[in-house]
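Researcher: We're teaching a course module on how sequence relates to structure. For the next exercise, students receive a sequence and then see the predicted structure as tokens, so they can try to spot secondary structure elements on their own. Here is the exercise chain.
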Amino acid sequence: MTPWGQALLASWLAGLATGLGGLLVVLLPHLSRRVYDALLGFSGGVMLSAAALTLLWPALARGGIASVTLGLFAGGAMILLLERSVPHLEPHFAPQLNGPGARLGLLLAAAITLHNLPEGLSVGVAFAPGTGRFGLVVALAIALQNIPEGLAVATPVRAAGASRLAAVLWATGSGMAEPIAAAVGYHLVSTVQTLVPFALAFAAGAMVFVVSDQIIPESHRQPSDKAPSLALLLGFLLVALLVRLLS
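Model: And here is the predicted structure for the students to work with:
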């Protein structure tokens, strides 16, 4: 399969992972807050490790400090601008919602769809020619992070009385922006090879900002619970081992 085909398939599967999160709501309707927090922590560790080892490190190896620094902060700034342009909705775990749940689910789906744009961009950039061979690791990291997001969308929708199928479809739909963004990132970097260091750092900055600003705070709403921190370390180690095996 060509790199372009790999990028499209990987971003599509990563986007579908939000549907897997929705499926968890159907199959495990009484998922505990502690398990949810641990899932968030694990996905945060996976994303941090993927950003550092498969995006930022190759960017430093291929470009100057200036372009990498600019790309890193530009990626974080883009997430910040997205958050300020839409209602900032954290993916709260709220199975007790009833009437307003459908509206909350729709708003969460819209917000998460926007947040998935830079994630899809990261997948496309990671598969583009000249960026290295860790595209699958980046796609896996984002797919794991998408599972709790899908859960966050489907939970209030299901609690509002929607069917199981509708809850899963809402969650799945929120991830379908990723293949579109991946196509943009892939073709842009493939056309202009000088953008490779900047693009890799940009993708890393977006991922790190999401973890720091959303995933870590959300996973520590019970400060006494250390499971999210341990899960984060496990996720970080998993990606480090994958990178070592691929190297």
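Model: If you want an answer key for the exercise: Residues 89 and 130 are 36 Å apart (CA to CA). Residues 3-246 form one domain.
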